[in-house]
Amino acid sequence: MCGIVAVYGTNNVVRDIYESLTVLQHRGQDASGILTNHEGKILLRKSLGLVRDGFDARHISRLKGKLGIGHVRYPTAGQADSSSEAQPFYVNSPYGIGLAHNGNLINSAELKSNLFSEDLRHINTKSDSEILLNIFAHELPLHSKESFTPDDVFYAVAGVHRRVKGAYAVVTLISDRGIVAFRDPMGIRPLCFGTREIDGKTETMIASESVALDSAGFKLERDILPGEAVFVDIDGNIHSRLCTENTGHTPCIFEYVYFARPDSIIDGISVYTARMKMGQNLAKKIIRTWKDHDIDVVMPIPDTSRISALELSVSLKVPFREGFIKNRYIGRTFIMPEQSQRAKSVKRKLNAIASEFKGKNVLLVDDSIVRGTTSKQIIDMAREAGAKKVYMASAAPAVKHPNVYGIDMPASNEFAADGRTEKEISSLIGADRLVYQDLSDLVKSVKDSGSSIKNFDSSCFDGKYVTDDVTEEYLKELDDLRNDAAKNKNPSDSHDDVMVY
Hints:
By secondary structure, this protein is of the alpha+beta class. It has helices at residues 14-23, 51-54, 57-62, 108-117, 128-139, 150-163, 210-215, 254-259, 271-289, 306-316, 339-349, 354-357, 373-384, 422-429, 439-447, 459-462, 472-482, and strands at residues 2-8, 31-38, 41-48, 67-73, 89-91, 97-105, 166-174, 178-183, 192-198, 201-207, 219-223, 228-233, 238-242, 265-266, 269-270, 297-300, 324-326, 350-352, 361-366, 389-394, 433-436, 499-500.
């Protein structure tokens, strides 16, 4: 999963991009980058780690220009070993183009081969984002600055849609011509845009989540439609067009479960409201299937599950308590590349308040259970703090299948639910009882939260891949890339300074 942003402004845009990337930091902590266009030159800074660690005042002052794009990332298949794999990527032909991408391409091996043999373009990294950049660049007609039109952009995006399979939300910068954003034909990954008025002139921001627009003072206009391209030209005019046949809108449901910030609105759906309803529906299941429950308190596992846990508590008429205090300077364990890092970080990340556990039957609520390792450690912490019984509830169904559309879940044999019954998973994580959300209730929770969208990509729960091009061979290759052994690499240092092209 990644976070992307693009800004057209009347002055230097780097500060808006930098601040927006910090707001989107939850979408990736592996690397960050900013690319701007100033007086015909492309300026680029990429770094491993958090945004705040990769950019100082010296870098910000050099990244001039009224056009810019930015990216925060964690890798979707294995651990990147240098900042050369970080985004945005840049290619100088034609015009000079930078690109940042959120998603995952299913046919990247075929595309890479065709780029070399037919398009005569060489790929330097393992990232499918560089492949996407070169396809877009190859499809873009070569015209002078004066004769360059929005039609040229839409022609190129249509070419991308014809060739590329998978999920992709993209922002690009075309030197001295404007910024472009587009979304895959099924709208799997999120992308929206907004505007603000500065001294009578309109500025535009495009971002993965609406919260990035809010923080910078931009008004959310709308989500970019599946298959649509939005082009903001060098004068600030906004052009848009559907560049492929509408094949349906199926956004990723895991965005609402875990990844997106609760104060975001994605495809017209309030993430906060969706998580409230997840808690309400989970409570209904407990009432239906466990009428004689002996739960004394409901506790969230900070932070993503707090909204669901509170609503579950209200519906069950059981007290809500904060049993764990979170160290906010430790990253999200889900996106840490190695099992050893994840295991060490849980104890550093959470500390139990013993008085809230002692002698009580506690229901812990989490947003989801993937490997189960974190759940087991937290349950152990609850018992050490004096809990009499520890139950676990998941606001999402059991994760049973790989996500191929840009979420770096582990290899399938590392899932807690791989080949295990619910009772066996409960035993694995050390819970006295385990309750999963039903998939139908999860879908209902999101559907009933403010949008007309009827279908979602729920492939990590039900194994139904919405693009119909995911083969067993591809899933096997993905498993080989995503196991912990493949992620056991030592990343090198970041680029020292701003690169100029």
